[in-house]
Amino acid sequence: MTEQRTSVMVVDDHPIWRDAVARDLTDEGFDVVATADGVASASRRAAVVRPHVVVMDMRLADGDGARATAEVLAVSPNSRILVLSASDEHDDVLEAVKAGALGYLVKSASKQELAAAVRASAQGRAVFTPGLAGLVLGEYRRIARNSAGPAGPAGPTLTERETEVLRYVAKGLTAKQIAARLALSHRTVENHIQATFRKLQIGNRVELTRYAIEHGLDE
Fold first, then answer.
1. What is the distance between the alpha carbons of residues 174 and 190, in angstroms, rounded to a whole number?
2. pTM for the full model?
3. 7-132 maps to which CATH number?
């Protein structure tokens, strides 16, 4: 049986760059199912093609990448957003991640680095240009500290095994890799992840990773 290729949508307001990225990803074996130049067109096309991964610029014809990220995820919640931007400004990075982006690369990344990042994004793993991951983790820890009240309600209780699995999810490991680390079956690990989804009332691995970061489980 032929393995399904990862479908990708490329969002960028510069036609030459957009076409070059689409061509490079096609050469790397991805199925580029759509391109868009702005927020409105990205949202409209994502609703139709529902790509596995969206490669998103931060400067668009009718808005910014953070807004486009939020709108794309509203119509295609299972898509993973990987920002590819000329900007490495901290505000841009944090706005993109807060809107739901899974990873962030600057445009100086090589063709091979981009392809590897798209593959990782398709698997639900966060990828950042070196130096930016620490920024994002630090911001989430700051938010978690500031929002933690002294007498807040107790959160949901995870089992020791669920917490252990969650730590590995936060580090970007796949269920198969976690299973190998813990000497469990792939199905058992997936069951733990799904149980954690239910307890924490979250919908995907991105939100699960954020929960782990906010609660210091990524260390």
1. 10
2. 0.67
3. 3.40.50.2300
